[in-house]
């Protein structure tokens, strides 16, 4: 895949760019063209997600088992070189195909895996990862006597608390990047050139050392220690990877690695990495390797190639065979994408169901409490309405039978006694809007006045 910037993806981009700069025509096949592949297309590379869509090449330089077999099947008779990048992944096993003329590993750990798979030790060479020095910016300042700024770049996060605690105790400011911390970067080289100290493994550790930073080789799998010149000589054949992580990645080990800081040793290690692991050195080796393979007088065997392709399809296309290789690949991909093996999926689903039940119970309890509160509010409102009605009745009774009513009746009597009927009647009619003359109404009195 050419989606992100994992080890194999970066190697593919480096080789394509470097070989094209040297005048070679490079054709790139990847099962998935992601952002990295689209970026390579934009720079003029020919990238396809079907091997048959590309012209017939002179040689196939392959990574990952499935794409390698697909390319060999699409272009029968073309010799191939295979490079393994992982010591455990099923998709980094050597392709069982007679067209593969050379098998290589990026470090000693991957080499041991290929030998364990059945290859002769002499048949597996080393082709270590390299650093494109043209991407490394110059350091803005020399390394200090003690580190002040650190960066961790990692795919995992289990060891981050230990690094954070050790850096805090040493007074070092820390920034975390990578899929583990959830903070991605497209330009790790710039971060390394600004940092005094970098916590990383494998390619990231190589790039950090090439950028002139001091390096503590560690990740969630373990800790190797501070990268000195002597350590670099011993650890580079292991690609600064899992094969040298002999200590646990706990606070004590990381604090000890920080305490081993030496700016001169970091600079000496950086010089060694730049001298031995530059991309130009790698490209020289690859050109020589390709020329050697193409010069060999080996006649293709179409029947053997077809049989190898058929056997691979039988094992890698999904079937009911529980021991087929494709099942190991499915488990590996499940662990990488979902954070756990496929075998653990029923337990994970049961945990999700339990969490859902607990959430539903909590929501039910909350709803019941809200209903109870609403009933209390309804009772309080009814009591308030009853109290209001009672007060209104008392006020009405006071107006009808109390002193105010007696005062009103007394005032009305005084009015009738003091004002003649002839005056009161017109005033009453004016008040009530009546216009009849006295004696013409049905009552003959013109109303109440």
From TrEMBL:
Gene3D superfamilies assigned: Glycogen Phosphorylase B (3.40.50.2000)
Superkingdom, taxonomy of origin: Bacteria
Glycosyltransferase subfamily 4-like N-terminal domain boundaries: 6-135
Sequence segments annotated as region (Disordered): 429-449
Protein name according to UniProt: Glycosyltransferase
């Amino acid at each position: 895949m050419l989606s992100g910037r994992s080890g194999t993806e970066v190697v593919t981009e480096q080789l394509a760019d470097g070989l094209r700069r040297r005048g070679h025509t490079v054709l790139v096949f990847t099962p998935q063209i992601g952002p990295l592949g689209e970026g390579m297309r934009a720079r003029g590379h020919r990238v396809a997600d079907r091997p048959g869509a590309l012209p017939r090449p002179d040689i196939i330089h392959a990574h990952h088992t499935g794409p390698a077999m697909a390319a060999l099947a699409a272009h029968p008779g073309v010799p191939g070189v295979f490079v393994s990048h992982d010591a455990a992944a099923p998709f980094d096993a050597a392709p069982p195909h007679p067209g593969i003329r050379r098998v290589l590993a990026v470090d000693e750990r991957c080499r041991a895996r290929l030998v364990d798979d059945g290859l002769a030790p002499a048949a597996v060479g080393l082709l270590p990862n390299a650093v494109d020095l043209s991407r490394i910016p110059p350091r803005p300042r020399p390394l200090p006597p003690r580190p002040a700024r650190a960066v961790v770049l990692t795919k995992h996060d289990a060891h981050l608390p230990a690094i954070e605690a050790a850096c805090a105790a040493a007074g070092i400011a820390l920034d975390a990047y990578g899929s583990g911390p959830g903070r991605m970067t497209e330009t790790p080289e710039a971060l390394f050139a600004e940092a005094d100290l970098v916590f990383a493994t494998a390619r990231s550790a190589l790039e950090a050392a090439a950028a002139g930073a001091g390096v503590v080789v560690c990740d969630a799998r373990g800790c190797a220690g501070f990268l000195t010149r002597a350590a670099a000589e011993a650890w580079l054949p292991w690609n600064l990877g899992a094969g040298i992580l002999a200590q646990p990645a706990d606070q004590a080990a990381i604090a000890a690695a920080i305490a081993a800081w030496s700016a001169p040793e970091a600079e000496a290690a950086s010089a060694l990495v730049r001298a031995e692991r530059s991309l130009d050195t790698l490209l020289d080796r690859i050109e020589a390797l390709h020329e050697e393979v193409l010069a060999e007088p080996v006649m293709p065997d179409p029947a053997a190639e077809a049989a190898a392709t058929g056997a691979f399809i039988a094992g890698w296309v999904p079937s009911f065979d529980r021991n087929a290789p494709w099942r190991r690949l499915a488990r590996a991909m499940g662990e990488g994408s979902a954070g756990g093996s496929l075998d653990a999926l029923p337990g994970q689903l049961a945990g999700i169901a339990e969490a859902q039940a607990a959430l539903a119970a909590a929501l039910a309890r909350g709803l019941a409490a809200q209903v109870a509160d609403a009933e209390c509010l309804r009772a309080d409102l009814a009591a308030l309405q009853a109290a209001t009605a009672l007060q209104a009745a008392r006020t009405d009774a006071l107006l009808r039978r109390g002193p105010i009513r007696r005062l009103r009746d007394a005032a009305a009597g005084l009015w009738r006694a003091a004002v003649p009927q002839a005056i009161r009647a017109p005033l009453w009619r004016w008040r009530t809007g009546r216009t009849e003359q006295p004696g013409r109404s049905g009552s003959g009195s013109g109303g109440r006045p």
